[in-house]
Amino acid sequence: MTFYQDCGVSAGDRVLTLFKTSVDAYLSWLGLGWLGAIEVPTNPDLKGALLEHVVRDAEPALIVLDDDCLTSVISMLQGSDLAVPLAVQDRRQLPALGEEAVVHERPTYQPSADGGLAAEPVPRTINPWDTTMILYTSGTTGPPKGVVVNWGQFTEHGNSIFPEGSVDETDSYYCPLSVFHVSARTPLQLMANVGGRVVIHPRFSVSQFWTHIHEFGCTSTLLMGAMALFLWRQEPSAVELNSPLRNVLMAPLIPQASQMEERFGFRVCSLFGMTELANPLATGWDRVDDKSCGTVRGGHECRLVDSNDCPVPDGEVGELVVRHDEPWKLATEYWKNPTATASALRNQWFHTGDLMIRNSSGDYYYSDRLKDSIRRRGENISSFELEREVASHPSVFAAAAVGVQAEDGDQDVRVFVILKDAEPTPEPATLIEYLRGVVPSYMVPKYLDVVEEFPLTPSGKIRKADLKILAVTADTWDSSAGAYCSGISQEVLNR
Fold first, then answer.
1. Per mean pLDDT, which range of 10-14, 50-54, 149-153 is the poorest?
2. What HEC string does 392-410 produce?
3. Rounded to whole angstroms, how far apart are CA atoms 341 and 194?
4. Within 70-185, where are the H helices?
């Protein structure tokens, strides 16, 4: 706080941070909040044009960074017309930036003897409509947009992680998540409310997970779908037994969620949320199955609508739209992007871009992203559901499904898979035959590609737009021909 005051930061200023997950990162955010300034937490792995876009769009008064980010930040600044003051741990590591550059040396966190922090009263009222941070989305379909998160929305996020009464002052929340995501910030809100603690770690590690849970007595955590799957696929070991972990938020649920409860001895709940809104759907601990996103949480109103925003009946796919009965429970806007704001909030509902199905009991089931759904032979295909079935094969590590243009004007299904390091390696024909046994015929992919990795956004989401334009090669399996492709024009696929 005092450091930021010395740097000239004041209420309303935006400060872009490039931090690995650390105590410093959290204290920086709280110090900025104390001043009424706005943090722009940014992926420290960004570089070049991706980093320049965020800096140019956010127009920060200051950039605060870990030393690991020095090279990429300096390179970006020197290659642009941007001139932003920097705050670093050790300015001696900086190359010459020119006489006009302003560099501050920032302090590092030094715990007191009892591990606590001296607190000063906040010199102003913090209102629900005040902005706490601007978080940039992954930009899977275009340049990242800045989501303006207000304190009212953030508080709603934190309060909804677990069903009410699930944690108290004896609990410890394990948080190995990237600090530039809202999911890494909300545990602090949750545990501060009850007097518990948060144990942070720079990254999720399958090999260290259970060791950390035991070492720090962690009772609660968030497991994103991939994290849960990694843990499930580990060989059983003694370290996973008799752990203190009892509360797990799993989002999204994986098909083995109930089996994980039995194997690891914890309970699982799930919810649906996103950067733009706190969690409108939640299962509670008594979830109905291992697929539902839950039912509508109190205070929220949800609908599934068609392309004209008209409600669809139960059992049919529609886009989830949301609103709250109190103000300042959703993101304020997209930063400097009134067109995107108006589109997302049209007809007085926030449009999530997610397709779901609601059953007669009020449970919501995820179907797909609106822009990722595939239509083949008159049938709508959920890429999410197809990917889940592909990944159920014991030799498949991960899968991504996309629709590509077919010669008849419809779409064909193309699936990319990453295989596990195991023997024997299955042939594409074997994978296709497996899928014929678990999905309808119209969902069986025409094209199958085995790849080493997927193109990812800075936050780790698959860039499906990049996959859709990849050329079919001699290594692409054509299931309709029962052979590898040859002589197929990419022009046909892109038509």
1. 50-54
2. CCCCEEEEEEEEEECCCCC
3. 35
4. 70-78, 151-159
Residues 435 and 466 in one domain: yes
Q: Residue 491's pLDDT band (boundaries 50, 70, 90)?
A: very low
Helix (H) or strand (E) holding 321: strand 318-324
Same domain, 345 and 484: no
> If 0-12 CB within 10 Å is exposed, 13-18 middle and 19+ buried, where does residue 282 land?
buried
Residue 384 structure tokens: 């999410």
CB atoms within 10 A of CB 353: 18
**Residues above pLDDT 70, as percent of the chain:** 91
Per DSSP, which regions of 349-464 are E strands? Answer: 350-358, 364-369, 374-376, 379-381, 396-405, 411-419, 447-450
Based on the domain organization, do 303 and 367 belong to the same domain? yes
Are 164 and 182 found together in one domain?
Answer: yes
Number of folded domains that form the chain: 3
What's the pLDDT at 490? 44
Q: What are phi and psi of 248, to 5 degrees?
A: -125, 120
199 plus 119 within the same structural domain: no
Q: Residue 133 domain-assigned?
A: no
| DSSP code for 144 | -
Same domain, 349 and 385: no
Residue with tokens 């590898």: 484
- What CATH number corresponds to the domain at position 387? 3.30.300.30
Alpha-carbon distance of 228 to 16, in angstroms, equals 31
- Residue ending a domain, among 89, 124, 159, is 124
State how far the Cα of 67 lies from the Cα of 54, in Å rounded to an integer.
19
Q: Are 364 and 380 members of one domain?
A: no
Domain with 466, as residue range(s), is: 374-493
| Same-domain check for residues 205 and 322 | yes
Where helices occur in 105-224 by DSSP H, the ranges are 151-159, 186-194, 206-215
Residue in 66, 52, 70 with CA at minimum distance from that of residue 23: 66
3-state secondary structure of 256: coil
Question: Is residue 249 within 8 Å of residue 161, measured between CB atoms?
Answer: yes
In our burial notation (b when 16+ CB lie closer than 10 A, e otherwise), range 111-128 reads eeeeeeeeeeeeeeeeee
Q: Output the six-digit token pair for 174.
A: 């394990």
Q: Across the strands, what pairs with 39?
A: 15, 133
The CA distances from residue 72 to 25, 45, 99, 456, in Å, are: 19, 8, 20, 19
